[in-house]
Amino acid sequence: MCLGVPGRILSLDDADGALVDFWGVQRRARLDLVDQPVAPGDYVLVHVGYAIRRIPAEDVEVTMALYDELLHAAAAEDDLMRADVRGEIDTCAPSGGGPRGSD
Amino acid sequence: MVATDPRTPSARLEFRDPVRARALAERLATLTADLGRAPIALMHVCGSHEQAIARYGLRHSFPQNLDVIMGPGCPVCITDTPEVDEAVALARQGVRVLTYGDMVRVPGSSASLADARADGARVEVIYSVAQAVEAARQTDEPVVFFASGFETTAVATAAVLLDDPPPNLSILSAHEHIPPVMEIICEMPGSRVQGFLAAGHAATITGWGVFEPFVAHHGVPVVVAGFEPLDILAALVRLIELVKGDAPSVEHVPALRDPRGQPARPGLAVGGVSAHRRALARHRPHPQREPAAAGQVARPVRRAAALRHRPGEPVARPAASGRPVPLRRHHGWRGEPDGLRALRQAVHAVGARRRLHGSTEGTCRIWHAYGGHPDLEVPRERAAPPATAVATAA
Q: Residue A21 above 90 pLDDT?
């Protein structure tokens, strides 16, 4: 799961976390590791539940296009890269807060 | 903000541009043509690179005398048997063991965590170390997180450890730091790896300077690249140029634009000169630590390994593995037969058969998914010492 997954920050909370939108799926990600200040509207790259960097605005479009292709193109449903990207979204806690189950 | 991006929406996905890809493939052929029959062997160390090479069929475009070998880039392959044994032993003693999903089926000496769970042990799959923190906060009993993976996951574990974790949370770390692993590859008898392709995201965490001591010591060049076809092709071209030159160095591949010290594509690539900033720096001041500076970038990863067991942690030492497990094992394992054997198996990929389909980052599963073993025969003939490794694994 080296790829990570990009998402858009919807809001920040008090505990160094953020609500992040991934293609309409809203999840919580930790911001401990981001290299720059982030604000709602910024895009971040998330890996195992942690945002690891802010995506510069001018690179958002091409990055999202790339992941769109990975997630939605005519590749097999069980494509490994697609599975990894989806898995990355699952690393983030649900938007309702609290711990995830281990399902 | 940096300078305006030269790309336009119409140029989206230009990193898949077949014209550029063909040009790079031709450059590869030209570069390797005068090598004659002597093959050049380059190694990448990330499952996502192998995924991209297999998914887009890049090996088909490689010259015959270019071997691109998948090194130890799969967290399942690289995890040593005693580490699994330790987790299994803890689980069988009744300790709650939380781990990433791809570790559950990895066999230890006698059992996997899945086996232990089937026998009633409490083994839980989590997706993020943050869930382990939450689980520990809701109870007084010991909770162990069996942590695996390279820099990108190690840094998340480190973040938890540096942020006042619950006292009942212990970390059983099988994290790996990639430069020492690359050193082992180079020091293996008969090693023929002449250059390394390093993973963009891991270098996002550590900074690419983390490879400079390795290059200085071994004289083997490293090129950091993202995971798109053009990234990989361009990185291979640059690697061969460096191999043929006489000044090995660490570089990164901005495949799509002029090198300005900015990442080619932050989604999938890595920054160059600014990489030292991408360490464990927080996005706002934190009372417990200063923002990381250049030269400190690898420390959090090492610390995650050092804190394999938290001081004073209440978890009993495992008995089932039959021997004490050394602290910071993975820094001392380079001379240990188990570790070297595991590594050799990972290098030659077929050794991973035993753990087939364990991880989406394993060569075994990647080749299974994308069709066949593209260059299996060539490395088995040429690589040393393949015969015993293959025989052992089969």
A: yes
Over 50: is that where the pLDDT of B32 sits? Answer: yes
Task: Inform me whether the pLDDT recorded for B238 exceeds 80.
Answer: yes
Distance CA B252, CA B240 (A): 13
Mutation target vs A (from B231, B268, B359; most A CBs, 10 A cutoff): B268
Are B188 and B340 spatial neighbours (Cβ–Cβ below 8 Å)?
yes
Mean pLDDT score, B147-166: 78
pTM (2 d.p.) = 0.68
d(CA B102, CA B104): 6
Q: Under DSSP, is residue B51 helix (H, G, I), strand (E, B) or coil?
A: helix
The distance of B144 to chain A (nearest Cα, Å) reads: 15
Please report the residues numbered 117 through 146 in chain B whose beta carbons come closer than 8 angstroms to any beta carbon of chain A: 124-131, 134-135, 138
Nearest Cα of chain A lies from the Cα of B103 at a distance, in angstroms, of 13
Selected residue of B137, B206, B283 to mutate for chain A interface (largest A Cβ count, 10 A): B283
* Interchain CB distance below 8 Å, B130 and A38: no
Q: Distance from A97 to chain B by nearest Cα, in Å?
A: 11
- Give the three-class secondary structure for B35: coil
Task: Give residue B263's pLDDT.
Answer: 31
Sign of CA dihedral A68, A72, A74, A76: positive
Higher local confidence (pLDDT), B289 or B146:
B146
Question: With contact defined as beta carbons under 8 Å apart, do B305 and B180 qualify?
Answer: no
Task: Find, among A103, A93, A94, A80, the residue nearest to A1 by Cα.
Answer: A80
Q: Which residue has the higher pLDDT, B393 or B155?
A: B155
ipTM of this model? 0.75
Cβ–Cβ < 8 Å for B117, B143: no
pLDDT of residue B361: 64
